[in-house]
Design brief:
elongated; mainly alpha; three-stranded antiparallel beta sheet
Length: 274
Amino acid sequence: MKFLERKEGTLQLINNAPKAYPGFKNYVRKKIEEEEKLLEGVLFAEDIISAMHSGYKNALAGYLRSAEESNRFIIERASLSIFVSATEEKYLELLKERQWHILVDEGYIIRAASEGIGRIKKATGRTLKLNKYSVYLMGAPVCRKHLKFQKYSMSIDELVDNLRVRVSAKCKFCHRQADYFTLAMPKASALIGLAEYITGKSTTNLMRIYANISRVIHPYGFTDLDKDKVFTLWARDFLNIISEVNNLFNLVDSSRGSSNNGKLTGKFVKNGES
């Protein structure tokens, strides 16, 4: 189907989508089954697989907004998988114990990849590979008096010992010399950018798809489209997304995106990268 190869965003093509024929629907179903096998052992695989199935069902029923929400969730979970696998398992704990939003509400946030990477450079005077120590430097520096989340913090002394770099920072709250760094929670767009930083592979197309899907969901919604056209629109985004995600995960060979430039490679799995 030539429509799938068009480069415009979903919003630009919303009125030009062809109806999906039964053979194409079966093809997409088989792609989902193939993807399930590829994702075996990947962190958050269950979430991604669930989103693929819910997206498929909603697209068949003609619910574009709900189907595209599943696509957006796939991007978010895949990016989070790469980030957590490369950094700190305490992020998993924050999710399981439903503490993530509490730190967000307290202002421990990374709004963009450049913001997080910039914080590392500010604290150390250099850029560092992201790992279970350097990720703390993307968070908030605090003194002992203002240390509120000790469980999700690491002392500067420990960071210096493990990173072998000089770390200098002022407390976020009182501007005295900081003693700890507390983890910050990346927003979705930051996660996509950080996935690029970790893997060395371009996420430009994934970010573009994510932004376009977000506009489909809000403010437009598109609740009055022919359901067979809805399936084509959703499937086009879905197939592009899994191609990009597989490239990031190194699940399949792909000519899309940049080379890894010697950075982290291998499948991202539940207990770190292989």
